[in-house]
Each structure stands twice: as structure tokens, then as C-alpha cells.
């Protein structure tokens, strides 16, 4: 039973970590595109 709980906790942490990392990377990419757009428009 304990191993199942550990597995669930590990899975949750991994999934949330991937989601957070993906969100941060996406935000940075959008930020870069925004800068490029501003440079292009000026």
C-alpha cells in the first residue's frame, strides 16, 4: 500500500513539475516573440 502512495505522490510531483516548466518556457517564448514584434513595428 505504501509503495502505491509513494508512486502517486511521485507521479503528481513529476506532472506538476512538467506543467510548471512548460508554462515558464511558453511564457519566455511568447515574451521573445513580443519583443520581436515590437522591434519590427518600431
Could you explain how this protein is built, in words?
The chain is an all-alpha fold and 42 residues long. It is 95% helix and 0% strand. It has one helix and no strands. The protein has one helix at residues 2-41. The protein is rod-shaped.
What low-confidence regions span 5 or more consecutive residues with pLDDT below 50? none
Total strands: 0
Distance between the termini: 62 Å
Question: What's the tally of helices?
Answer: 1
Rg (CA only):
18 Å
What is the N-to-C succession of helices and strands?
Answer: H
Protein name: Methanol dehydrogenase
Keywords: Membrane, Transmembrane, Transmembrane helix
Organism: Enterococcus hulanensis
Give the structure's gist in a few sentences.
This protein has 42 residues and is mainly alpha-helical. It has one helix at 2-41.
Give the SSE layout:
Elements: H1 2-41
Summarize this structure as a short list of keywords or feature phrases:
95% helix; 42 residues; single chain; Methanol dehydrogenase; transmembrane helix; membrane; transmembrane
Amino acid at each position: 500500500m505504501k509503495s502505491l502512495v509513494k508512486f502517486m505522490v511521485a507521479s503528481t510531483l513529476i506532472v506538476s513539475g512538467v506543467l510548471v516548466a512548460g508554462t515558464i518556457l511558453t511564457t519566455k517564448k511568447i515574451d521573445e516573440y513580443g519583443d520581436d514584434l515590437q522591434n519590427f513595428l518600431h
